[in-house]
Write a structure and sequence with these properties.
alpha/beta, 7-stranded mixed sheet, globular
């Protein structure tokens, strides 16, 4: 029997507690129906017996408190809601318990921005991690010793697991279910919950917003210039001259401020503009390509797929209602 402890932190997302409880409990029913013994002993665990969420709108009654748990096999850390640093501060009492259980052999999995709480334990230092694409810049600032994997849905290293944003955590839950049971049970669960199995990227959902929460006003002005001139070809030398900085120093400052090289930033901004046009207009591939400053069809398609996981035509067909109607 695998002891699954689902943490109930303060300021956490209710679905991130209820969904894994539902999944592993349902998996037990699948096993029983197949003539097998149930495998998972699932408990909600917290500092208190009752945790109020969403400003008291919901109340979660835990099965056990931290001190009641001798040994867990799997600990699930749900997403936090709101200010991440405030959420970490509210849940400091969970951190030594997670560390202790990990040292005793438990596996630990964070769901979405639950990665902030997991990283606060120090267990992820020097390791890889996934989290919601919209929080990656903040995560990197708070935890520079952790390697964030852009676009990844599931990351696994040394009994530590993390997942991409929002509903991406279902992919991690199915991955864990398959690990503890078998492929057939995981596939059955994916069909039962109508969730894609083995999805490996959240890139198609990501929206590039650019890291501007830094103190370099010169670089910020260059970022704004790039974002306002997506239709133009922009060179690094041109931008360095605008910044009145030598190219090498400019590239170093830009990377330090934005977590992207200059060329990466330009391409991300252009592809983001292309995505918006594919979503909201009837323009064909070449029209959008020229509108965001590309002239080489192969280069545009390659960069678009690299950053979104889809070809331009597949992206347009997926997200443009007018394209679907046509």
């Amino acid at each position: 029997m695998k002891h699954v402890c689902i943490l109930v932190p303060e300021s956490s997302v209710l679905q991130g507690i209820a969904d894994p409880q539902y999944l592993f409990s349902t998996a037990n029913q699948f096993l029983i129906s197949a003539g097998k013994a149930p495998l998972f002993h699932v408990e909600l665990v917290g500092v208190k017996r009752e945790v109020k969420l969403n400003n008291g709108l919901f109340s979660v009654h835990t099965d056990k408190q931290l001190s009641d748990i001798e040994k867990a096999d799997l600990i699930l850390v749900p997403p936090l809601f709101g200010d991440m640093q405030a959420g970490i501060a509210k849940n400091k009492a969970l951190l030594p318990w997670i560390n202790e259980q990990y040292k005793n052999g438990a596996e630990v999995a964070s769901l979405c921005v639950g990665a902030f709480l997991l990283a606060s334990t120090g267990l992820l230092n020097g390791k890889k991690c996934s989290t919601h694409w919209g929080f990656q810049n903040e995560f990197r600032q708070l935890f520079p010793e952790v390697e964030v994997i852009d676009g990844s849905i599931v990351t696994e290293e040394h009994r530590l697991y993390s997942s991409g944003g929002a509903n991406s955590y279902w992919t991690l839950l199915l991955h864990l279910l398959e690990k503890y049971t078998d492929r057939a049970t995981a596939v059955l669960a994916s069909k039962y919950f109508a969730v894609d199995i083995d999805r490996d990227s959240q890139a198609v959902f990501a929206m590039f917003m650019g890291q501007k929460n830094h103190g370099d006003d010169v670089i910020k002005k260059i970022q704004e210039y790039i974002e306002q001139h997506t239709q133009e070809k922009i060179s690094v030398d041109e931008l360095a001259e605008m910044a009145n900085v030598g190219r090498r120093n400019f590239e170093r400052r830009f990377k330090q401020a934005t977590n992207n090289s200059v060329l990466e930033y330009i391409n991300r901004v252009k592809i983001e503009a292309a995505k918006r046009q594919f979503e909201n207009s009837r323009k064909n591939i070449n029209e959008v390509m020229y509108a965001v400053g590309y002239t080489d069809t192969k280069a545009f398609r390659t960069m678009f797929k690299k950053l979104t996981g889809l070809t331009p035509i597949d992206y347009r067909n997926k997200y443009n209602k007018m394209a679907i109607a046509d």
